[in-house]
Design a protein that fits this description.
Elements (H helix, E strand, L loop, with lengths): L5 H7 L3 E3 L2 H13 L4 E6 L5 H13 L2 E6 L9 H6 L4 H10 L4 E3 L3 H4 L18 H4 L3 H16 L3 E5 L3 H14 L4 E5 L19 H6 L2 H13 L4 H13 L4 E9 L19 E8 L2 E8 L1
Parallel strand pairs: 1-4, 2-3, 2-5, 3-4, 5-6
Antiparallel strand pairs: 7-8, 8-9
Helix pairs in contact: 8-9, 11-12
C-alpha cells in the first residue's frame, strides 16, 4: 500500500477515541473483515516525538493504526512513581490525531482489569536481570498488559521503542509463550538535540537536572571509542565513573549484555547473538532515566 501523509490523512478522517474493550474489538474486527492490516502502538501516554515516530512507522506499514494510552498499574513496583507518572490525555489525543491515528484506546483501570490479573509469566532469565532485578514484578506487569492488548486488538504488527531495550526482549519471550501471531517491530531511540533519550519522565527534571542529563548519552557514545582499546570491565567502569562525576547523577547499574539473552558479558567476544549492548539506568535527582548503546 502507498502510505498517505499523516497531516493529510488527519484532515480526511477524524480519529476515534474508544474507552471500552468490546467496542475496540468490534472496531478492529470490522477492519480485519475488509482485509486490512492493523498496527498497534502501546503507550502510557505523556506522548513525545519518540512515540510519534512509532506511530509514523505503523502508519506507513499498516492500513489501520491503534494507539493505546494507559498507565498500567501492574508494572509499577513504586507507588510514588505510579502517582507522579505524567498524564496528559488532551494533549496526547491532539498529537495522535495530527499523526493520522485511526483509534486511540484510552480505557480506565477497571475496564482493563475488571478483576485482579493474577497471571504469572515464565519469562526466564531475560527478565531476571537489570530492570527485572531492580524492579521486582515490573516485567510480569508488562507481560500482563501487553498480552491483554494483543488479545483485544490481535494486531498484524506491534511497535516498541529501543530505549526500552530489555522490555522488547521480554515481550518477544511473552509472545513465544502465549503463541501470538504477530510481528514485533523495534524502532530506533529518538533523542533530543543534545542527545538525551526522549522519555515521558524527562518532564519531571528540574532545569538544572535537564542541563546535566545528556551526559548519559554523551558518555555512552564516548565509550564506543574507549572500548576499542579497553576491556569490557574497564569500559563499564569508565561509563559509571564518568556519569557519577556529574552533579545530580547516580548510576544504578550499567551492564554490557548479549542483545538477545540480556545476560551480562565478561569479555567482548562473549556476545554470540550480535553486537554487545550497553544498558544503563541512572538517577538524575529523583528521576530514573534509561538508555543504551551498541558496541
Amino acid at each position: 500500500m502507498v502510505a498517505m501523509a499523516p497531516a493529510l490523512y488527519s484532515l480526511i478522517r477524524k480519529m476515534e477515541i474508544i474507552r471500552k474493550v468490546d467496542e475496540l474489538r468490534h472496531r478492529v474486527a470490522g477492519a480485519k473483515s475488509e482485509g486490512k492490516s492493523v498496527g498497534l502502538v502501546p503507550t502510557m501516554g505523556a506522548l513525545h516525538a519518540g512515540h510519534i515516530s512509532l506511530v509514523d512507522r505503523a502508519r506507513n506499514e499498516n492500513d489501520m493504526v491503534v494507539v493505546s494510552v494507559f498507565v498500567n498499574p501492574t508494572q509499577f513496583n513504586n507507588a510514588e512513581d505510579l502517582a507522579t507518572y505524567p498524564r496528559t490525555e488532551e494533549a496526547d489525543c491532539a498529537k495522535l490525531e495530527a499523526a493520522g491515528v485511526d483509534v486511540a484506546f484510552i480505557p480506565s483501570v477497571d475496564e482493563v482489569y475488571p478483576e485482579p490479573d493474577t497471571r504469572q509469566f515464565d519469562l526466564g532469565e531475560v527478565a531476571a536481570v537489570m530492570e527485572g532485578a531492580m524492579r521486582p514484578g515490573h516485567f510480569n506487569g508488562v507481560a500482563q498488559i501487553v498480552s491483554k492488548l494483543f488479545s483485544i486488538v490481535e494486531p498484524t504488527r506491534a511497535y516498541f521503542g529501543e530505549k526500552d531495550f530489555q522490555q522488547i526482549a521480554v515481550i518477544r519471550r511473552m509472545v513465544e509463550l502465549e503463541g501470538f501471531n504477530l510481528e514485533i517491530v523495534d524502532c530506533p531511540i529518538c533523542r533530543e538535540d543534545d542527545g538525551l533519550a526522549m522519555s515521558s519522565r524527562n518532564t519531571r527534571l528540574t532545569a538544572g537536572q535537564r542541563e546535566v542529563a545528556p551526559v548519559i548519552h554523551r558518555t555512552l557514545a564516548a565509550s564506543v571509542d574507549w572500548a576499542k582499546t579497553h576491556t569490557l570491565e574497564q569500559t563499564k567502569r569508565f561509563v559509571i565513573d564518568e556519569i557519577n562525576s556529574f552533579p545530580h547523577m547516580e548510576v544504578e547499574y550499567y551492564e554490557i549484555v548479549d542483545p538477545l539473552t540480556m545476560q551480562s558479558l565478561d569479555n567482548w567476544e562473549d556476545a554470540v547473538n550480535g553486537h554487545p549492548v550497553g544498558c544503563v539506568t541512572a538517577y538524575c535527582g529523583k528521576v530514573r532515566l534509561i538508555d543504551n548503546i551498541r558496541y
